[in-house]
């Protein structure tokens, strides 16, 4: 029988040894009335995450263990490839996202055949002022530059139909940015507010540096606009320099004003040199991605796969 499983839960895990058992128990208690499977992805954890997964191993639990850390996005892709449910949910292992919300999402999808994706978003962010400010700037920038829409506060916590999963599996790029990928594939989204719980155990994998790289990846992956920055700045500077040139000529010819300005020249050379280097750097960012993508490397490598069915 096709689609025997109603719901697949994709759970990317990196060093989550203290959460696996609690997560499995909570899911078991919450999902008494539906047929579901859990797909744990051990993303190259250096602690006992895999051991813990094997302890809870059951016929409705699949375990994919990567050969090293490939990142959450790679984990999601691996999970999607093996998900058998009619509905699929992406959820973190740390119980910051209560499994009960998945039931709410599922109900919504069942009652609204036109909606394909339910995305949870945080009404109130649980983070510092500076991170919050940077996130605001990031969303302003990316929405301005990119052709697809990014919703501020939308998380990776989503439940969606099979057709969405199939569309995402068709995007085989190595640099994966799931917020962008979900906007890119389209379909009808519904945004559901949720409250983020404190982490059950362990600590977050995000540092400020990590978030910054994530933001750059998001912009570079989904918009070629920064590449046009050089043309834009170049054009403006050229216009200004022509105007300035005319002013200097007029001053010299008609008013005999001598033009001084060693300091001005030094500043201008440094400024232009700086802008040029920034532009080259931006081109480099895109070029390096093109280089990596052209190698067509796999998104992840599996060391061990356990399916007890
Ligand atoms: N994660 C992963 N690979 C990584 C980093 C994180 O699979 O390289 C998983 C992590 O185990 C967790 C989820 O992604 O289940 C979200 O990570 P985290 O809780 O650190 O992020 P936060 O909730 O703080 O945004
Ligand atoms: Mg978390």
Molecular structure report:
There is one protein chain. The protein is α/β, with parallel strands linked by helices and 309 residues long. The protein has 10 helices and 8 strands. Strands 7-5-6-4-1-2-3-8 form an 8-stranded mixed β-sheet, with helices on both faces. Strand 2 (36-42), helix 2 (49-56) and strand 3 (61-66) form a beta-alpha-beta unit. Helix 5 runs parallel beside helix 8 (208-222). It is elongated. The protein starts with 6 loop residues before the first strand and ends with a strand. The model has no long low-confidence stretch (mean pLDDT 86). Uridine-5'-diphosphate (UDP) is lined by residues 12-14, 16, 43, 69, 71-72, 75, 92-94, 96, 204-206.
Q: What is the count of helical runs? A: 10
| Poorly predicted segments | none
Strands of the widest sheet, in order across it, are 7-5-6-4-1-2-3-8
**Taking Cα atoms only, what radius of gyration do you get, to the nearest Å?**
25 Å
Q: What key phrases describe this protein's structure?
A:
309 residues, alpha/beta, eight-stranded mixed sheet, 10 helices, 16% strand, binds uridine-5'-diphosphate, binds magnesium ion
Outline:
The protein is α/β, with parallel strands linked by helices. Helix content is 49%, strand content 16%.
What is this structure's SSE topology?
Blueprint: E1 7-13, H1 20-30, E2 36-42, H2 49-56, E3 61-66, H3 72-82, E4 87-90, H4 99-111, E5 117-122, H5 129-145, E6 154-161, H6 162-169, H7 178-185, E7 189-194, H8 208-222, H9 229-255, H10 262-294, E8 302-307
Parallel strand pairs: 1-2, 1-4, 2-3, 5-7
Antiparallel strand pairs: 3-8, 4-6, 5-6
Helix pairs in contact: 5-8
Residues 92, 94, 96, 199, 204 line the site of magnesium ion.
